[in-house]
Design a protein that fits this description.
The protein has about 230 residues and is mainly β. About 10% of the residues lie in helices and about 40% in strands. The strands form two sheets. The chain has a six-stranded antiparallel beta sheet, with no helix packed on it. Strands 3-4-10-9-6 form a five-stranded mixed barrel. Strand 9 and strand 10 form a beta hairpin. The protein starts with a strand and ends with a strand.
């Protein structure tokens, strides 16, 4: 799963946005949690935009905006069959740019948070989006797509976000092209080298937004592609 992530204003993230065709500089935001606003890149009628979306999908058919069900992650294995995700999966796919995400691993009696990033601190994570309308109000929301963990990442968590390779950006964003549920995009494989580092446990509290918390105390573990 992916329950927290970070956005760092850095050259790597700026380059990722340019690669996505977006002219925007995102401000640093640390320890972003579900229901908070995030940057969503999407494509409508051949035009790409970066919009602010609520990170917790509310389907267009939902009677109200609520948090009864955990809708901040969507399992790739059920995208085509889930009532909530099958329509967005067909034509409402997006990308959430981020610098890193956080996972927790049980270590002894505690859950140790780990920072997961890349050398350039830039990750393009697959997302789905929908628009809910109620009266005169409307809500753009999104969910992050996850897949089974690559073998190298499995010691940290059984799931991982679907991190898109550069040659997958256009196809994922093109809502006119169908993508199968077993597409290679969802493969349980590391498409680039990931860097992992233990973090202070204070970051487990979503109210802690200090960027200094991302300066982990431990050595960096590298997981090569594959």
């Amino acid at each position: 799963m992916c329950g927290r992530f970070n956005v760092i204003d850095s050259p790597g993230l700026q380059q990722l946005l340019r690669d996505l065709g977006i002219d925007l500089r995102l401000p640093t935001a640390v320890n972003i949690a579900p229901t908070e606003q995030v940057c969503l890149v999407r494509e409508l009628d051949g035009e790409r935009s970066a919009d602010s979306a609520r990170w917790w999908l509310t389907p267009s058919w939902a009677p109200a905006v609520d948090q009864k069900y955990a809708m901040f992650n969507a399992r790739s294995e059920t995208l085509a069959s889930s009532r909530a995700f099958r329509h967005p999966f067909k034509s409402q796919r997006g990308i959430v740019p981020m610098s890193s995400f956080i996972e927790w691993r049980q270590e002894g009696q505690v859950k140790q948070p780990w920072l997961v990033t890349t050398a350039d601190q830039a990750l393009a994570v697959a997302a789905l989006w929908d628009v809910w309308e109620g009266g005169e109000s409307h809500l753009l929301s999104c969910t992050l797509v996850t897949t089974a963990a690559a073998p190298a990442f499995a010691p940290w968590h059984s799931r991982m976000p679907v991190i898109l390779a550069p040659d997958e950006y256009d196809r994922w964003l093109d809502g006119s092209e169908a993508i199968a549920a077993n597409d290679s995009i969802f493969r349980s494989e590391l498409k680039q080298t990931l860097r992992l580092q233990a973090l202070p446990r204070a970051i487990s509290n979503a109210r802690n937004k200090d960027p200094a918390l991302l300066a982990g105390p431990g050595e960096v573990t590298e997981l090569p592609p594959g």
